[in-house]
Amino acid sequence: MSKNKSGTGLSHFSRLNQAVFLHQPSIAKTRTSQGPDLILILGWMDAQPRHIAKYTAGYEKVYPCARILAITTSSVDAGFRTTSANLNRVKPALEILYTLPADAKLLVHFFSNGGAVTNTLISKAYAEKTGRPLPVSVQIFDSTVGRASYEATVRAFSLGLPKNMIAYLLGVSILRMLLGLYILGNLLLGKEDLVEAARRALNDKTLLDLDTPRLYIYSVADDMVAWQDVEEHAKDAKRLGYTVYMEKYQDSGHAAHMLVDAERYWGAVDRLWNTVS
């Protein structure tokens, strides 16, 4: 375990490996504290620590006694690494989750389809090892769950490309070719797309307990995850028996709702938590 460098945006977090960061609060949690014991934040694809820090800072303010685990997911992680390699990426987080006491209060907040894929990876690994769902108190679906559309996937992966115009255009061309090959390979092999697999897993009661309420934060203006896809997933969740809350923005961009109206955003998060505290 090493202290993080200030340039990453999570200077007071310990870096457990290249993708996992841990914050230990300076304020001791008391028996009467109503906040989470642990907050698990799963960033959107290619979100850097400095981006995730905007959300960890909010959680530190709202729930100062909580430990915070933050995990990054790169486009390489999501699109090209094996399951084994990705399990190794999240291994330090899993080791902490495996040791949680039965009565621990866990808040999970994941962003975009990249965060959804990592959430599914963690949930499946936990269930396979323990024989039960991850003991989540509440879950926040931020700018997710979408569908695996070709153009939306290209836009998502393009966020990690160089800003130089020539390099960017070359990168997009390569992305389109690789994505086409990926889709063709899935069709030939009968494999399910990662996003569709995550979409299905996030409504699987063997992975996510029906007693865990969830909040969808999404926007009509999101150009990567369609609001209709989010509402369809939420409707399916309600039909299955999950308790669902919705926070629908009109003009915020992808994974940027907090930047448009922070008071509304954190108010929705806190109201969700208060349903179980």
From TrEMBL:
GO terms for cellular component: nuclear outer membrane. Keywords: Membrane, Nucleus, Transmembrane, Transmembrane helix. It comes from the Eukaryota. InterPro entries: AB_hydrolase_fold, DUF829_TMEM53. It is found in: Nucleus outer membrane. It is a single-pass membrane protein. Pfam families: DUF829. The chain crosses the membrane at residues 165-189. Belongs to the TMEM53 family. PANTHER family: TRANSMEMBRANE PROTEIN 53. This is Transmembrane protein. The gene is tmem53-b.
